[in-house]
Amino acid sequence: MDSGIIASLIPTIGTIVVAIITAITNKKANKIEDIDKKIDAMRTENKKDMKEHTLDADKTYLINFLSDLENGVKKTEVQIKRTYEIYERYTQNGGNSYVHDKWEECKDKGLL
Fold first, then answer.
1. Can you give the pTM of this predicted structure?
2. Which domain holds residue 39?
3. Residues 6+ apart with CB under 8 A from 90
4. 8-state DSSP, 84
C-alpha cells in the first residue's frame, strides 16, 4: 500500500474507534440513568407502602385501645402517653375519620 493511503487511514481509524467507544460509553451511561430512575421509583413506592401500612397499623391499635378504655380496661400512664404519640403520628400521616371522633368521645368521657 502507498504510505499516503496508510497515513490518511490512521486518523480515520482513530475517529471510528473513538466513535465506537463513545457509543458504548453513552449506552452504559443511559443504562445507569435508567437503573437510577427505576430505583427512585421503587423507593417512592416503598415509602408510600410503608406509610399506608403504618397508618393502617396505627388505626387498628387506636381502635383497640379506645375500645379497651370504653370497656373498662385499665391502662397505665405510659400506655396512654404512647397512645397519644401514635395518635399524633396517625393524624400527621393523614388519618382522621371515625378514629378522630372516637378519640374525642373518649377524651370527653375522661377516659384519656
1. 0.66
2. 3-108
3. 55, 58, 59, 62, 99
4. H
Number of structural domains the chain divides into? 1
Neighbours of 58 (CB within 10 A): 21
H-assigned helices in the chain:
3-70, 77-92, 98-108
64, 73 in Cβ contact below 8 A?
no
Rg, the chain, Cα only: 32
Distance from C-alpha of 40 to C-alpha of 67, rounded to nearest angstrom: 40
pLDDT category of residue 103 using cuts at 50, 70 and 90: very high
Nearest CA among 71, 70, 73, 75 for reference residue 103 = 70
For residue 23, the model assigns a pLDDT of 76
Residues above pLDDT 90, as percent of the chain: 50
The most distant pair of C-alpha atoms in the chain lies apart, rounded to whole Å, by: 104
The grid coordinates listed for 45 are 413506592
